[in-house]
Amino acid sequence: MNNYNTSLKYGFYGALIGVVFYFLLLFSGNSPWGSSSWMGSWIPIVSAYFALKTYIYYSEKDTFKFSAFFRVSFISIFYQALFYNTLTVLLSSFIQTNAIEIYKQELIQNAEQMKTMLSEDMYKQLMIELQNLTHATLAFWDFIYKIIGGLIVSLILAGIFIKNKPIFEE
What we know:
Layout: H1 2-27, H2 42-58, H3 66-94, H4 99-113, H5 120-131, H6 135-161
């Protein structure tokens, strides 16, 4: 049960750092979902890393399984994605941010550059989809992308943290 509390705590810390980063991007005039969003990719990695370090420190065991490391880091990233997207949807509904408008402008500029490669019907459909874009749909897809990335990060961190036994016991 302790590993779930550790994951919850570090997931919440990561979400708070993510929300601060969200507002830093907004105040700098960039979209949190646009081309600048990659700058926050370190946040789930660092929060999962510290969740694993805390799990090892407070654990009474000497040996750990790969599945335990994977579970702690993935649950930490899951909580982070859940809290982050919930907080951004709530804060953007209370505070009228122009995050969606910035993101739409960036996507429209990209679509204008690709207009020659797209057919007229595809371009019209893209513009209709951009007009129907809401914060909830962006948060949902951001959550899905964070979960997929979290699976990859959790596999890598679990592989790094696993301690193999020596081949020849002394």
